[in-house]
Amino acid sequence: MRAQFVLSEIGVGLRRNLTMTFAVIVSVALSLALFGGSLLMSDQVNTMKGYWYDKVNVSIFLCNKSDAESDPNCAKGAVTDDQKKQIKADLAKMSVVQKVTYESQDEAYKHYKEQFGDSPLAASLTPDQMQESYRIKLKDPEKYQVIATAFNGRDGVQSVQDQKGILDNLFKLLNGMNWAARAVMALMLVVALMLIVNTVRVSAFSRRRETGIMRLVGASGFYIQAPFIMEAAVAGLIGGTLACGFLLIARYFLIDHGLALADQLTLINFIGWDAVLTKLPLILATSLLMPALAAFFALRKYLKV
């Protein structure tokens, strides 16, 4: 097969159906940009999980005098020194516990003032209203229930709280957004495939005389189909290249510059450039193969060349 002939036929086909070719390029670009974005979102959620789950603590809040008057869990009064020693000793015996840190009322008051000093409530609080607590670092964050079972309802314990539960709600929200993006991506891919099939059919119909002559002179089916398949592949590859550009630009402006989320949200461990670059070959391969296969099956089913 002469490469010059195939290339010329590709150029002719793309120019004849310029509007539909443009629609194919745009739909492929948007759908694959969403595809790459959903993959990167999954990486970001996994990175955040690894970062934050490694830092989560279980907190055992102890009863103070105020709780003794208002909280049923503290009906027996504020925590005593003996109860605190017993709680600490029991924590030291537990194999799931990696580290225990004690926070006094004064320290809790100081931390509250640092975080919420501007709130109206902060001015009326005093250190004796704050709760003492034990901050527990677990070897496995999934073992929270072991601590909760052992200390919930114990004398002197107001509550046992797991920070992982708060993070789980955040990650559920992020995963929900990711699945929504994937649903939109799937819809865009369907639209792109329909446009590719219609573009190939219109292109083949407009050149039916040429293909008929080629059949009469004994050209093989693949020789006739090749220009149409490669037209779709070239249009898809252009769309895939645009999708890669969208992802690179989004990473650059959203995280490093422009919005500069990496500087503004220092508590979030954002994915690096390596995560983006590793997705680009997959996007380009998909943009090339998906239109080519769609064109191939469209020609076999509808045109019977």
Automatic annotation (TrEMBL):
Instruction: Identify its membrane topology class.
Output: Multi-pass membrane protein
Q: Which UniProt keywords apply?
A: Cell cycle, Cell division, Cell membrane, Membrane, Transmembrane, Transmembrane helix
Q: Does the keyword Amino-acid biosynthesis apply?
A: no
Q: What is its main location?
A: membrane
Boundaries of each ABC3 transporter permease C-terminal domain copy? 183-301
The cross-references to InterPro entries, in alphabetical order and at most eight, read: ABC3_permease_C (IPR003838), FtsX (IPR004513), FtsX_actino (IPR047929), FtsX_ECD (IPR040690)
Cite the FtsX extracellular domain residue spans from the record. Answer: 56-160
Indicate whether Cell division appears among the record's keywords: yes
Location relative to the cell: Cell membrane
Origin superkingdom: Bacteria
- Positions of transmembrane segments: 21-41, 179-200, 221-254, 280-299
What is the protein's quaternary organization? Forms a membrane-associated complex with FtsE.
State the PANTHER family in the record: CELL DIVISION PROTEIN FTSX
Similarity annotation:
Belongs to the ABC-4 integral membrane protein family. FtsX subfamily.
| Function according to Swiss-Prot or TrEMBL | Part of the ABC transporter FtsEX involved in cellular division.
Name by which UniProt lists this protein: Cell division protein FtsX
Species name for this entry?
Answer: Streptomyces bullii
Q: What is the lineage of its organism?
A: Bacteria, Bacillati, Actinomycetota, Actinomycetes, Kitasatosporales
